[in-house]
Design brief:
- It is built from two helices and 27 strands.
- A hairpin with a 2-residue loop joins β22 (249-254) and β23.
- The protein has 354 residues and is mainly beta.
- The strands form six sheets. Strands 12, 15, 16, 18, 19, 21, 24 and 25 form an eight-stranded mixed beta sheet that branches.
- The protein has helices spanning 2-16, 339-353; strands at residues 20-24, 28-30, 36-43, 50-54, 63-67, 70-71, 78-83, 88-93, 102-111, 114-124, 126-130, 138-141, 146-149, 152-155, 159-164, 177-178, 181-184, 193-200, 207-223, 227-230, 236-245, 249-254, 257-258, 265-273, 276-283, 292-300, 303-313.
- The protein has three domains: 17-124, Immunoglobulins (Immunoglobulin-like); 127-216, Immunoglobulin-like (Sandwich), CATH 2.60.40; 224-313, Immunoglobulins (Immunoglobulin-like).
- The site of one 2-acetamido-2-deoxy-beta-D-glucopyranose has 3 residues, from β26.
- It holds the Pfam family Ig_3.
- It is found in: Cell membrane.
Length: 354
């Protein structure tokens, strides 16, 4: 019995001499500019150095901050307290900066190759920053699969969401999608436009990147009016609307002949946006052979398309544009370019004299 008590006492005495770390602060998330205390409680460590060490990351080395009650690093932002009652070493950090984030280690050095340690993380809140490896702009062909990717740093780890300009519906459905990747299996030309990658972690206002998605597609050509009527000797406009990306080369064709600007035709084009062009063919002072089927042909590297405008002879002139160079408000001195109207004017003048 006596021996047992003796052994127990001896064991206790031996145990008392073995230092240990009984408690260390849990991982904490703090704001930039705030203050914070890191606490580490040790037992039976009076005879040993107790250190606070900031762990290095990658290219930086471990940095011992304090030993026992003494700061090693001189910084007005660090202060040290020792609560001898609970044998707690308290490292206070004021005006927290982003670089203060990281792993802090409480260490008791028992010998050259003998140390005990415990560590905790200090996480400093940071607003999201979208990483450079996120998709910027993409140019794809209609029908292609498209992968938009977006990554962001920040503390805590930001959530990524996708939206489209004007809250348009995403090709994947709905107006909002979550996750780093937005995968479009087969892009349509209607899916082109600006996409937003939004990173949010509750710190600050979040970050946004605009991702421009250009979809190249073969031309789509429509005749504004497929049948137009005009009388002989008058001018008439034929119009086509072309949708294409990249912009298409546009030609007007009559009887297999490409039409160019001359005394019979005037071709004009007006781009209303990157991918929309209106083209007008003005047929000047129409002759009999100019009635017929005109094609407006558009082609780009993805293909070719056309529409037909039929110019049909009418008895009476159609305004506009027939009246463009006439003035019915009574200016008799005006020259009338159309022979038909000139004849009319002549008849009128003759009647006037009678
Ligand atoms: C993008 O970069 C971030 C760091 O900026 C990294 O964490 C992430 O893994 C990278 N993603 C890819 C797919 O490369
Ligand atoms: C990310 O989204 C989830 C689910 O909506 C939410 O619970 C979490 O708090 C968000 N994280 C951040 C950092 O905002
Ligand atoms: C133009 O096209 C129409 C319909 O496609 C056809 O009926 C007509 O004969 C054509 N006219 C000429 C001059 O080829
Ligand atoms: C038509 O005549 C009126 C009055 O004489 C003049 O103000 C106007 O500019 C003319 N229009 C054209 C298209 O010549």
């Amino acid at each position: 019995m006596r021996i047992l008590i003796f052994l127990t006492a001896l064991a206790t005495a031996l145990a008392q001499r073995t230092p240990s770390i009984s408690w260390i602060q849990k991982e904490q998330v703090v704001d930039i500019g705030s203050s914070f205390e890191l606490q580490c409680s040790v037992q039976y460590a009076q005879d040993y150095p107790v250190l606070w060490v900031k762990r290095g990351t990658g290219d930086t080395q471990d940095l011992p901050i304090s030993t026992g009650p003494t700061l090693i690093v001189r910084s007005s932002r660090y202060a040290l307290r020792h609560d001898s009652g609970s044998s707690t070493y308290i490292l206070q950090i004021k005006d927290i900066q982003e670089s203060d984030g990281g792993e802090y280690m409480c260490q008791v050095i028992l010998g050259i190759n003998n140390r005990i340690s415990a560590s905790t993380n200090l996480l400093v809140r940071r607003p999201p920053v979208i990483s450079d490896n996120s998709t910027r702009n993409v140019v794809v062909s209609e029908g292609d699969p498209v992968n938009l990717e977006c990554y962001a740093g920040g503390m805590p780890q930001p959530n990524i969401t996708w939206r489209r300009e004007n809250n348009a519906i995403l090709p994947t459905g709905g107006s909002i999608a979550r996750g780093n990747k937005l995968q479009i299996l087969k892009i349509r030309k209607e899916d082109r436009g600006t996409y937003y990658c939004i990173a949010d972690n509750g710190v600050g206002r979040g970050a946004r990147r605009n991702v421009n998605v250009e979809v190249e597609f073969a031309p789509v050509v429509k005749a504004t009016r497929p049948h137009v009527y005009q009388a002989l000797q008058y001018d008439m406009d034929l119009e086509c609307h072309v949708e294409a990306y990249p912009p298409a080369a546009i030609r007007w064709i009559l009887k297999q002949e490409s039409l160019v600007n001359n005394q019979h035709y005037r071709v004009s084009q007006f781009a209303t946006a990157d991918e929309y062009t209106d083209t007008t063919l003005r047929v000047l002072s129409i002759e009999k052979r100019q009635f017929g089927n005109y094609s407006c042909v558009a082609n780009n590297k993805l293909g070719q398309s056309h529409a037909v405008v039929q110019l049909i002879e009418s008895i009476t002139p159609v305004c506009p544009p027939a009246c463009d160079n006439l003035n019915f408000s009574g200016d008799a001195s005006r020259t009338v370019t159309s022979p038909a109207l000139a004849a009319l004017a002549l008849v009128a003048a003759v009647f006037h004299r009678i």
